[in-house]
Amino acid sequence: MPIYKITYPRIERATHAVLDSIRERIVAELAFKTEEILNPTDVKEMKDKFVNNASMLLKKELPSISERENKILIGILVQEALGLGPLEFMLKDQGLEEIVINSSKEPVWVYHREFGWLKTNITIPDEAKIYNYSAQIGRKVGTQITNLNPLMDAYLATGDRANATLFPISSEGNTLTIRKFARRAWTITDFIEMGTLSADVAAFLWLAIQYEMNIVCTGGTASGKTSFLNVLSMFIPPTQRIISIEDTREIQLPNFLHWVPLTTRPPNIEGKGEVTMLELMINALRMRPDRMIVGEIRRSKEAEVLFEAINTGHSVYSTLHANTSEETFKRLVNPPINIPVSLISSLQLVAVMHRDRRKGIRRLLEVTELIPSGGLEEMKIELNTIFKWIPSKDQIVEWGKPHRLLKEIKLYSAMSDDEIKENIEGKKKILLWLVKKKIRDINQVGRLISDYYKNPESVMKMVKK
Q1: Is pLDDT at 82 greater than 80 in this prediction?
Q2: Are 127 and 252 spatial neighbours (Cβ–Cβ below 8 Å)?
Q3: What are the φ and ψ backbone dihedral angles of 419, each rounded to 5 degrees?
Q4: Which pLDDT belongs to residue 271?
Q5: Whole-number Cα distances in Å, 311 to 100, 304, 451
Q6: How far apart are CA 296 and CA 246, in angstroms?
Q7: Residue 129 lies in domain
Q8: Contacts with 43 (C-beta within 8 Å, 6 or more apart), sequence order
Q9: Which of 111, 231, 284, 419 is the most interior residue, by most CB within 10 Å?
Q10: pLDDT tens digits for range 14-28
Q11: CATH number for the domain including 109?
Q12: pLDDT tens digits for 373-411?
């Protein structure tokens, strides 16, 4: 098994004992309050106080150490008291997607973007330490993990998602799984550069979002569906109000958009204070949204509210676990989601993401439109695949002609077929210009799209020039 090796400063047992003593004294002296732990601004001040106190105490207890050694020991103290110890190094590595502790009996595992699963040379010394890391993550977002509540879903200040379980629910020991998210949000430039989709498909989807077509992004676990949803969301016009609803904050949009992000909240130790996705969705409809982004469709009631929102004139984008367009439709109409076909008819597009584990790539597998037929009592849905990925060529090709989408865009925009074609070609040129100029920053990409909506002629003139 390949090893992910971390070079960690070696500290003598006596020095470790001094560090433990100093850490306990500082924590007791500073007596951090819960509200300080929950407030990001207070956390920074708390860290500064800790570093100052640690520096003074180290110089007093270990006067012979150098300035460099002092800094190293302070870093270790801060990591152990306010962070996640050696895991902090892994959290900084942009090449990692997952950090996993299975128990204190085996090394920490990581999932690397290029090399897959790797064993590390770090082992957490005991189960209590793993529990402390989990409890620390939970406290910072106002939740707890205990023997009564041995399962926890939470997130770090960086936005990375964390899941923890306690023994004996996990029979080998306490576990902690951290899924890391990119510190720089993916943009359409990245996706075209990496071959995740082509400029033709991106331009087509841009047009669909501009004219308020509803889209569900589907795919398997870690196929990139949420990242793809995030990228598509940048095509929303800046004059419209966006409400996003998620279990964990993953959506990132340009900072100048009219955007209100909402997140669910688990119950406290007494079982009170829970805020569910269903409650947020119902509440969001009272906030006058033009567009709604919903993290994931899981249950029947959530799906019903989502499709009711579509039917009442809101544009909605969401994700769902399904490997193909056909599987997506089957999941929606069968238990546990079980949505009536008459409601599903309001959904225009399904975009399916795929992860090729053999090649280590992610691709847009297919874009399919849903075409309703028949009356209300015997309504049927026909699936018309417009774009499809051909694995042997690693190309996304035009598989069929859009029917419903063009019909509805003509209705809303009064454009002819030729004008729609010209519009898509113009968008394609802008996207290829972004790739050529290597413009990947979320705000810069969002600004150009915003400028296009305000003055398309000016943007097209700049691109051609």
Answers
A1: no
A2: no
A3: -65, -40
A4: 74
A5: 42, 10, 30
A6: 7
A7: 86-181
A8: 36, 37, 82, 140, 157
A9: 231
A10: 777 877 788 777 777
A11: 3.30.450.370
A12: 877 677 889 999 999 999 999 999 999 999 999 999 999
